Each structure stands twice: as structure tokens, then as C-alpha cells.
Amino acid sequence: MAVSEHIRHVQIDDVIVLLDIRAGRYLLIEDVAAEMWDGMCRDRTPEQIVDDISARYDAARDQVAQDFAQFLASCRANGYWDDAPAAPALPVVPRSASAVAAGRHFLTLRAWLALLASWMTLKTGGFHGLHGAAQRLAAMPRGAGQPDAQLLQRAEAAFLRAENFFILKSAPQDCLPRSMAMYRFLHGLGLPVRHRIGVERYPLTMHAWVECDGEPVLNDPDAGRMTVIATTGA
Fold first, then answer.
1. Which of 12, 45, 120, 210 qualifies as a cystine partner to 201, CB 3.0-4.6 A?
2. Is the Cβ–Cβ distance between 193 and 138 less than 8 Å?
3. pLDDT tens, 57-72?
4. Res. 99: pLDDT tops 70
5. pTM exceeds 0.70, yes or no
6. Whole-angstrom Cα Rg for the chain
7. How many Cβ atoms sit within 10 Å of the Cβ of residue 26?
8. How far apart are alpha carbons 118 and 122 in whole angstroms?
9. 229: three-class secondary structure by DSSP
10. DSSP string computed for 89-121
11. Looking at residues 98-114, what average pLDDT do you find?
């Protein structure tokens, strides 16, 4: 048994935040339920989880066992917990240096096309489709993944120019399609990028951004205060 493939989760203080990629929504698990979820994720047996909670709260074991059984059944029914084994990760095959170099021209046009592709995927497939596209992209052949500060600087400038020509002009105000477009664009240039989704506890908000060589692209000011809940890419 394990967390379902489309579920991402993170603990912030005493609260578990779940992100449902398939449904495009998130929820909180608090109090005893959060302890149950934590025990499940640490591969504790149901008996061990029940014993731990019973001892912690000096509660009747039979009642705790009943509550845990109901919680587990709810997680399964809602698709948060899966009895099937996780699928193996797809191998990543590097692209040749010549193929990467060939794709480093017409940067503004390539950035604009990435914005368009991101918006169209979100429109037709929703959050799940957009995230799935990023995962498929991460498994595709890519460059050697070496940091290139000069190329990144050129790419950031090209992306900002492309946003000025993007027909909807709403992309800069929506972190999800914008960051997915940036990830698609920079990945195609062979840069070592990853897409991040983070959550902030108070007030409960989410934000998406891209990192290159471990640093937020475009000096994203919101990335630093987020707790990462989902990562795609190298």
C-alpha cells in the first residue's frame, strides 16, 4: 500500500497538506487524522498506528481501531491511498550536444510557443493534463544538464519578451501555466531545471515556479516562503 500516484503531500507544523493532481485541488488533514496519515506513510502497520495513538491520547483501543479503519476506507474511496504498487520511473536519456545547440535559436519564438502550448494544455486537460505533460517532458531526452548562466539570462529575457506578445496576456498573472511554460522552454534548451509547486500555511495558498540549478528562475519572490509539495524534473 502507498500514497496514490496522483497525490502529493507535505507536513507543515501539525497539518498534512494533500495535493490531488488528478482533481486539481488540495485539502488539509489535521489532528489525529494527520497522525494516522503520517503513520501510514512511514509504513507502520495498522496495529502499530492504533497502538501509538491509543497510548498518546489514552484512548480506548477499540474506538481508535474503528476510527482508523474509517479513515483508511475514506482515503481509499477518495483515491488518496492505493493498494497497487507504484509504476517504475521512466529512464531519462540525454540528448546530444549538437541537438541541444540547434534548439538555442529563436528564443523568443520558442518561449511564445511554450506559453501557447501550456495554455492550450490547461484549457483542454486542466491541472491534471498540464502536470502530466510536464512529467512526460521530464522523461523525454534532454541536454547534458550543465548550468549556463549566460544562456539562462538570454532565455529569461526572451520569455519576458514572449509574454508581451502572447495573445491572452494573462499568463504572467497565473503561476501554474506560466511556470509550466517556462519549464517546457528551459528544458528544451538543455538547462537543469525543475518545476516546483509549494504551499504556504497561513493563509493557505499554493504557488508554482521553476528552478534552474537550484535557484528560482526570474528571481521569483514567492518561492522562498513556500514549502515544496510537488517536484517535476531533474
1. 12
2. no
3. 999 999 999 999 999 9
4. no
5. yes
6. 21
7. 18
8. 6
9. strand
10. PPP--BPPHHHHHHTSSSHHHHHHHHHHHHHHH
11. 72
HSE-CB for 215 with a 13 A CA cutoff: 10
Distant-in-sequence, close-in-space partners of 99: CB < 8 Å, separation ≥ 6:
none
Question: Cell 541537438 sits at which residue?
Answer: 99
For residue 72, the one-letter residue type is L
Contact between residue 53 and residue 64 where contact means Cβ atoms under 8 Å apart = yes
CA atoms within 13 A on the CB side of 88: 3
Cβ 165 vs Cβ 112: under 8 Å: yes
Tell me if residue 87 falls in helix, strand or coil: coil
Alpha helices in the chain (DSSP H): 31-41, 46-57, 61-77, 97-102, 107-138, 149-165, 175-188
Ordered by start, the domain boundaries in the chain are 2-82, 97-233
Whether residue 226 contacts residue 198, with contact meaning beta carbons closer than 8 Å, is answered with yes
Which pLDDT score is estimated for 46?
A: 94
Which is it for strands 227-233 and 215-216: parallel, antiparallel or unpaired?
A: unpaired
User: Which residue shows C-alpha cell 531533474?
Assistant: 234
